[in-house]
Amino acid sequence: MIMNGVDLEKALHKTKAKDQAKNPDEVLRAFQEILKEDDQLDDHILQNIFSSDGQISHLEARNLEADKIFTLKQIKELCTNYRLRFLSTKYFKGEIPHEAVAKVKQLQKKEGQEIKDFKIVAPASLFNLEYKDKDPLLFIPLGNQRYYLVHKWGNDLHPLRKAVVFPFRSFKSLLASVALLAALVVCCVPSSVMMGPYDQSSLAIRVIFFFYLFIAFSGLTALYGFSRMKNFNSELWNSKYTD
Question: Which of 77, 114, 150, 159 has its CA 20 to 30 A from that of 138?
Answer without folding.
Answer: 159
